[in-house]
Amino acid sequence: MDTNQIAYTANERAPAVPQWLNKGDNAWQMTASTLVGIQSMPGLVILYASIVKKKWAVNSAFMALYAFAAVLICWVLVCYRMAFGDELLPFWGKGAPALGQKYLVIRARVPESRHRVTTDRYETTEPFFPMASLVYFQFTFAAITLILLAGSVLGRMNIKAWMAFVPLWLIFSYTVGAFSLWGGGFLYHWGVIDYSGGYVIHLSSGIAGLTAAYWVGPRLKSDRERFPPNNVLLMLAGAGLLWMGWSGFNGGAPYAANIDSSIAVLNTNVCAATSLLVWTSLDVVFFGKPSVIGAVQGMMTGLVCITPGAGLVQPWAAIVMGMLSGSIPWVSMMILHKKCSWLQQVGR
């Protein structure tokens, strides 16, 4: 059999590929989804288990593990289409399962994203990969939002209460923000831009975490007085997985392996590194020595800061943003926190 015959036979046996499918975009989207998933599992599982006291380690890790699984099932049963489906209200989609084969193999599409480009031309968000890739990518965003929120109540919340909280908050809070901004809701049509989750993920999880910490209440006094991590090396390993996974977080937001995704990945790492160095430098200047926990905090504030504009700003701006994210939160945590009794109550 000659070379041409072999090639013909291979093509004949290959699965059918629809004309709209871009294999590069699809491969990158699945890779980005996996990177975001690794941020949660095992990234934040390891980080949470190691950054708290030993007696809370298993409970903290289990909170993250449970949230990842619970969000996935809720997502495919009803929540994906509440966030990215047909409009029910200007801020909410019609809930329905995203499990059928016919639904998952068609070209990805966000139905309510249709908008006017010119007088006689309209566009709708339609990436060049199947709906299954979009459903899973957006699930990893929903999951990490709940797991980030969990960081505010580590050592405070009973696991049974958390098990009830996760699906309720996902359905009644996360899907509202996601549809309003990314799913074609009213904020999307107002022109609000959230590149990769500044509002939908970080602002929502931050405000919800602050509110939850306030209502759950402070930890025991004996625990508040000394709160050392139980394993610093594992804490750094979890932080490293979180940092590296963020390339998929921001790099996958354009729904394509394009120039925007390349710029976003570079900006993400530049801002995180700058923020880490600024936070560490401030620790040295004011306290006389660097702090490994401070370095991790600086890294995380840098990653959060760059996310809303990772693919929209130039790298020099990412450095400026890193300087701000490494200094402003440092002041609020190291100076204002010690002077404000309300912040002390919530933060403990």
Automatic annotation (TrEMBL):
Record key words, sorted: Ammonia transport, Membrane, Transmembrane, Transmembrane helix, Transport
UniProt GO cellular component terms: plasma membrane
Q: Where does it live in the cell?
A: Membrane
Q: Which GO terms describe its molecular function?
A: ammonium channel activity
Q: What is its main location?
A: membrane
> Which Pfam family, giving just one, matches this sequence?
Ammonium_transp
Give the bilayer topology: Multi-pass membrane protein
Transmembrane segments annotated in the record for this chain: 27-49, 61-83, 135-154, 166-187, 199-217, 229-249, 261-280, 292-310, 316-336
Domain Ammonium transporter AmtB-like stretches: 28-338
> What protein family is recorded?
Belongs to the ammonia transporter channel (TC 1.A.11.2) family.
Q: What is this protein called?
A: Ammonium transporter AmtB-like domain-containing protein
> Which organism does this sequence originate in?
Gossypium raimondii (Peruvian cotton)
Lineage at the top is:
Eukaryota, Viridiplantae, Streptophyta, Embryophyta, Tracheophyta
